[in-house]
Write a structure and sequence with these properties.
The structure is a single chain. The chain has helices at about 10-25, 35-45, 50-60, 70-85, 90-100, 110-120, 130-140, 150-155, 165-175, and strands at about 30-35, 70, 110, 145. α1 (about 10-25) crosses α9. The chain is mainly alpha-helical. It folds into two domains: about 10-85, EF-hand (Recoverin, domain 1), CATH 1.10.238; about 90-155, Orthogonal Bundle (Recoverin, domain 1). It has nine helices and four strands; from the N terminus they run αβααβααβααβαα. Helices cover about 55% and strands about 5% of the residues. The strands form two sheets. Strands 1-2 form a two-stranded antiparallel ribbon. Strands 3-4 form a two-stranded antiparallel sheet. The longest helix has 15 residues, at about 165-175.
Length: about 180
């Protein structure tokens, strides 16, 4: 693969993905280390599972230089996944319901210890780094607990247009061409 091959960006979805990709292209040759894939996807507002991240890596990684992904492969593959509405986050209402299930007494908060145990041991476990990043935002410095409604409000920042709105627009444009 020629690292100097120009990558043509044709719509807002591709532009947003390319911009996020370039933030992690530390050499400036339109490539990233495979370990950055999950970070880029989460930066874009996606919620991929580890399996989905590994599938993207398998589909886009260079055969001859393992561990490297070029923008051209990443861009087309991720655009396709997003137009199929893959890796879409759950709604704030569903997140609130999940927190309420974990809080059967209806206290409105969870302890740091309980939340850490759940995040590290249940479902798709967080790494210690991911847990530390979450806790830095989630914990109320006054009580040391996680007031989940407040935490969810902090998570609800959305850019002007979400990556999934851009994907829907790109898909609509694509179907008009055919």
């Amino acid at each position: 693969m020629d690292f100097d091959t120009p990558v043509v960006v044709t719509n807002d979805l591709e532009k947003r993905i390319a911009e996020a990709f370039s933030m992690f292209d530390h050499i400036g040759n339109k490539t990233i280390d495979v370990r950055e894939v999950g970070t880029i996807l989460r930066f874009l507002g996606c919620t991929p599972t580890e399996q989905e991240i590994n599938e993207i890596i398998s589909a886009t990684e260079f055969e001859d230089t393992r561990g490297t992904i070029h923008l051209s492969r990443f861009l087309s593959h991720v655009c396709q996944l997003l137009t199929e509405r893959k890796m879409e986050p759950v709604s704030p209402e569903k997140l609130l319901e999940a927190f309420q299930v974990l809080d059967p007494d209806g206290n409105g908060f969870l302890t740091k210890e309980f939340m850490s145990k759940i995040m590290m041991e249940e479902g798709e476990p967080f790494t210690q780094e991911e847990l530390d990043e979450m806790m830095a935002v989630a914990i109320d410095p006054q009580t040391g607990n996680i007031s989940y409604e407040y935490y969810l409000n902090q998570l609800m920042y959305e850019p002007k247009e979400s990556i999934f709105e851009l994907a829907a627009n790109a898909k609509a444009l694509q179907s008009k061409k055919f």
